[in-house]
Amino acid sequence: PGRFDRQVFVGLPDIKGREEILRVHAKGKPLAEDVDLGSVARATSGFTGADLENLLNEAAIMAAKDRRRFVRQADIKSAFIKVGIGAEKRSKVISDKEKRITAYHETGHAILFHMLPDMEAVYTISIIPTGPGAAGYTMPQPENDDMFQTRGKMMQYITVCLGGRVAEDLVFHSITTGASNDIEQATKVARSMITRFGMNEEFGMVAFETVTNQYLGGDTSLACSESTAAQIDEKVVAAVRKQYDKAEQLLKDNMPKLHELAKYLYEKETITGKEFMKI
Fold first, then answer.
1. Residues 6+ positions from 54 with CB-CB distance below 8 Å
2. Of 215, 159, 212, which Cα lies nearest the Cα of 189?
3. Rounded CA gap, 179 and 160, in Å?
4. Which residue in 58, 88, 106, 248 is the catalytic one?
5. Which of 19, 72, 81, 109 is deepest in the core (most CB within 10 A)?
């Protein structure tokens, strides 16, 4: 992702660039002593300059609403969630059962983020709704700006995506529509590995899918025979199923922690990565 400016593509800023942008937009905004723009820069991988400006503006608005002169790190963290995921809707009423299911769902994601070696550390976990169909979220904190993704990391990402659905099924022996976006993301990554990145042993380094207008959202077109398309579908299903089984085994092996963390999240509603790691 990126954006066009006068027909010239400008890439996303790296960590150093994000910190410099934050310092520019922090001018005129009194910051408390606990504010660390370096850590904010590390946590905002994928943010554009406009996103970073919006982040600090939102943080300043939060401080003003509380009639405080200084912007605190907590304000920036809250703004980070709002800009990166969406505003939390604390007024939305959810049933106790939905709240418990969401707590296990998000805990399933978080445990897999922690256990899989190439995944990022957990930054925040919440069961406060952020929009239509989004009953909660698990936010990782990237440590680096990766130029590319390895096959192993992409497979691990699919595993993490499926962790919420797996946790629901293991604990409640039932599944919900809450994993719809997770399933979409897992399927998208599995398909791209086969059709775009040559990561399937049988097909090898052949690109079946072409992406156009990549920086304007991206349109894809599949160029292959019907029989090959059917094989691709089979391999996507097999890849996702394999990672589902892996997620299921990992969570089965850690059921006591799944229960303990879900109970804590249910009671607190939002927990930090430090709280998660303590448990």
1. 83
2. 159
3. 12
4. 106
5. 109
Residue identified by tokens 């990766």 is 146
With CA atoms as reference, report the closest residue to 241 among 251, 233, 230: 233
Residue 213's SS3 state is coil
Q: Which of 99-113, 119-133, 160-174 has the lowest mean pLDDT?
A: 119-133
Sequence-ordered strand ranges (E) for the chain: 3-5, 8-10, 121-126, 137-141, 209-212, 219-222, 270-272
Torsion 24-28-29-35 (CA) sign: positive
Which residues contact residue 201 at a Cβ distance below 8 angstroms, ignoring those fewer than 6 apart? none
Q: Whole-model pTM? A: 0.75
Name the least confident of 42-51, 81-90, 153-162: 81-90
pLDDT at 41 exceeding the cut of 90:
no
DSSP sequence for 45-93: TT--HHHHHHHHHHHHHHHHHTT-SSB-HHHHHHHHHHHHT----TT--
Neighbours of 234 (CB within 10 A): 10
Is residue 43 very low, low, confident or very high in pLDDT (cuts 50, 70, 90)?
confident
List all residues 6 or more positions away from 16 whose beta carbon is below 8 Å from its beta carbon.
41
Structure-block tokens of residue 114: 């922690």
Per the listing, tokens 């009423």 go with: 93
Please tell me which of 72-81, 128-137, 264-273 the model is most confident about, judged by mean pLDDT: 264-273
**Statement: residue 1 has pLDDT above 60:** no
Q: Reduce the DSSP state of residue 274 to 3 states and report it.
A: helix
Q: How far is CA 200 from CA 68, 138, 238, 270, in A?
A: 55, 30, 12, 39
Catalytic site includes residue 106: yes
